[in-house]
Amino acid sequence: MLQVDMSASKRESFGKGAMRRLRVSGNTPAVLYGNDKDVTSLQLETKPFLKTLYQISRKNAVVNLSVDGDTRHVMMREVQTDPVTDSLIHADFLEINLDTARTFSVNIELTGAAKGVDRGGELVTHSTVLNIEGAPLDVPDTVVVDVSGLDIDEAILFANIELPGSIKMVSDGDVMCVEVISAKAAAALAAAGDAAEAAAAEADEAAVAAAADGGAETPEVAVEGEEEEVVESE
């Protein structure tokens, strides 16, 4: 698993005004919790923090967080950003034990050229995220699956994926990862997809038309000899 270094210092200021001044000064407020320890309020320099966030984006990563010289092993739990400016507002860190197994979601990387594709078949990918359990530093960045041996009408299930001995499968082993289907089956699948899209589009158009009809106002007709009543739309 990816490891990165960060530095932070303990924060003594609290409240909305103090947080605003902290951000204006180029720092981001944060908290650190976990491992049965008291919550620690922190602040980090925003620019280097942003660079590290880009580095670990969408990845599992152990952060070696130095807090006033004391290194804590943590993971990012939440990063809050301003919905308009996208600037950093707050961050949450969870302290972990590197020797304790945890569950992680890991991307599957497909390699090789399936022999069934060379014979006219089509490779269909179903699931590319695997849930596994292990000590953080034993967890791979990705799980590599070789599809070169797949022939037409053959598939790889999660149960068929080999993992390092220290890693345990958490996902259901019966879930299909990838398969090779015949050209005929691929054509039928594409036709079914087109039909589903057409049906969905038709349903959307019908819903829009129904909403338009329901929102149309019926003109009031004044009967001769009666006082006209002005009806205000709500």
Describe the structure.
It is a single chain. The protein is 24% helix and 38% strand. It is built from four helices and 13 strands. The strands form three sheets. Strands 1-3-2-6-5-4 form a six-stranded mixed barrel. A four-stranded mixed beta sheet has the order 10-7-9-12, with no helix packed on it. Strands 8-13-11 form a three-stranded antiparallel beta sheet. It is flat and about 65 Å long. The protein starts with a strand and ends in a 19-residue tail after the last helix. The relative contact order is 0.12. The C terminus is likely disordered.
Strand content is: 35-45%
Rg on CA atoms, Å: 28 Å
Q: Which class of secondary structure composition applies to the elements?
A: alpha+beta
- Helix percent reads 10-25%
* Separation of the first and last Cα atoms: 59 Å
Q: Could you say which overall geometry the principal axes of the C-alpha atoms support?
A: flat
Low-confidence stretches: 221-234
Tally of strands: 13
Main sheet, how many strands, which sense, barrel? Answer: 6 strands, mixed, barrel
Order of helices and strands: EHEEHEEEEHEEEEEEH
If you average the pLDDT, what whole number results?
86
| Strand order, sheet with most strands | 1-3-2-6-5-4
Q: Number of helical runs?
A: 4
